[in-house]
Amino acid sequence: MNTINLKQDIIAYSKTIGIDKIGFAAPSTFEEMKIRLYKQQELQYQSGFEEKDIEKRTEPSLIFDEPKSIISIALAYPSKMKTTVLSKKGDRRGIFCRASWGTDYHTVLRDRLKRLETYIAEKVPGAKFKSMVDTGELVDRAVAERAGIGWSGKNCSIITPEFGSYVYLGEMVTNITFEPDTPMEDRCGSCNKCVEVCPTGALVQGGQLDAQRCIAFVTQTKGFLAEEFREKLGNRLYGCDTCQTVCPENKGKDFHFHPEMEPDPEIAKPQLKPLLTISNRDFKEKFGHVSGSWRGKKPIQRNAIIALAHYKDNTAIPELISVMKEDPRPVLRGTAAWALGKIGGPEALAALNRAADTEKDGEVLNEISKGLKFFRDDSETNITV
């Protein structure tokens, strides 16, 4: 079959199934990305969530027999809620990043890629595919950049002229040869806003990210958070959008093309206090369909405790005392103790003193000490420890 016509047919079909942008790339080694990934590994900047084998991440021939092309797709997601809910005193709310609004994007993109596979297979007998979304071996960003979807921004996201960086990416390796598209010229120029405003300095320089310091990564860890990250977390429950929201290329970009990506405000911006005692069953029922639930409820609950401390929400003191006394997980007990110290007040102080006498776990006792230290350091309070 004439692959020029086939390519045009695929492009036309992709628009009918909700693919907002599609590009075609050669399956040769991603040499520049390989160098960058080995450097990241050397500097220990990797998150640990990615494919460990750098060769597989950059050599399509290692994951697919005789690849001829890679098809890259992008779907635009909303940057604003059509309706929202307010976070107010006594009813504070956390926030999930935009990439966790609506149905898990892995599910959405896999659906589009599967439909694309079916369409191509009907036209080309013997066609073979390997499709990936985020958790596959290849680096989505490198494929999209080569396929002309957008350029790789200083914020380490693909930025498209049409949709900014508010796009999900996926790709399909195939044994069909297509004319590759032309990569896009970098338009970041001298702009350095994302690097300058990164809350933790995780963007070491344009295009280089220390994932271990990235708030988006930190929110997904399960242990105690380092003090510096607690101070930077704010009300984030999962992910971080700062490097996207400050990007001039994202100004005014807000697309609502896909109903399954529309956020439910009560899920994207949930009440914090109910999260502290939510059951596994209720968590799965309410949040199980969003990408931010993939690590389970524990990181979300820990982040909710930190968010309550950020707000200094004294209405949450009874719930935090209950967590500190009764939760079987040391990370939650200890973080609640720290939060009580941050919020302050006689009820919190009395509870911390009682816990110091009864708690057995060393790490939790350390957090109780941190909580009590807030009282000693607070020159504005008349309460003594």
Could you walk me through the main structural features you see in this protein, from its secondary elements to its overall organization?
The radius of gyration is 24 Å and the shape is elongated. By secondary structure, it is an alpha+beta fold. It has a 4-stranded antiparallel beta sheet, with helices on both faces. The relative contact order is 0.13. It has 16 helices and 10 strands.
Write a brief caption for the model.
With 385 residues, the chain is of the alpha+beta class.
Low-pLDDT residue intervals, each spanning 5 or more residues: none
Count of helical stretches = 16
Largest sheet: 4 strands, antiparallel
Helical content (DSSP H or I, runs of 4+): 40-55%
What characteristic shape results from the CA principal axes? Answer: elongated
Mean pLDDT: 96
Sheet with the most strands: spatial strand order: 1-2-7-4
Head-to-tail CA distance between termini: 81 Å
Radius of gyration, taken over Cα atoms and rounded to an integer in Å: 24 Å
The helix/strand order is HEHHEEHEHEEEHEEHHEHHHHHHHH
Quick one: how many beta strands? 10
Using brief descriptors, characterize the structure shown.
single chain, 385 residues, alpha+beta, Leucine-rich Repeat Variant, 2 domains, four-stranded antiparallel sheet, two-stranded parallel sheet, 16 helices, 41% helix, 10% strand
